[in-house]
Inverse folding.
């Protein structure tokens, strides 16, 4: 019913996916940018508002040192955001250059 896939072709596909995941594993700077753009959308900051951009960027840059923790697994990363006074932590999965909030 289905055509038989050669093991060498299957190995090539799996190797390509693993290499792609390794190369596209997002960095902490990528995560900061993700948080920055999300915060701008939440706050409904206009496109040309330079002062809000500077303040928000400063808060995210300085706060991430204390509240964001990254576990790098080479093919993907887990980010833990733990704010003081907040119940529980917020977790994100970073893979293939994208971020997904985990419950």
């Amino acid at each position: 019913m289905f055509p038989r896939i050669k093991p060498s072709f299957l190995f090539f596909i799996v190797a390509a996916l693993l290499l792609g995941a390794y190369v596209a594993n997002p960095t902490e700077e990528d995560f900061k940018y993700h948080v920055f753009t999300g915060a701008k959308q939440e706050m409904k900051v206009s496109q040309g508002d330079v002062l809000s951009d500077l303040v928000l960027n400063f808060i995210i840059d300085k706060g991430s040192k204390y509240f964001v923790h990254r576990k790098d697994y080479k093919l993907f990363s887990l980010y833990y955001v733990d704010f003081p006074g907040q119940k529980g932590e917020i977790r994100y999965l970073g893979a293939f250059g994208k971020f997904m909030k985990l419950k």
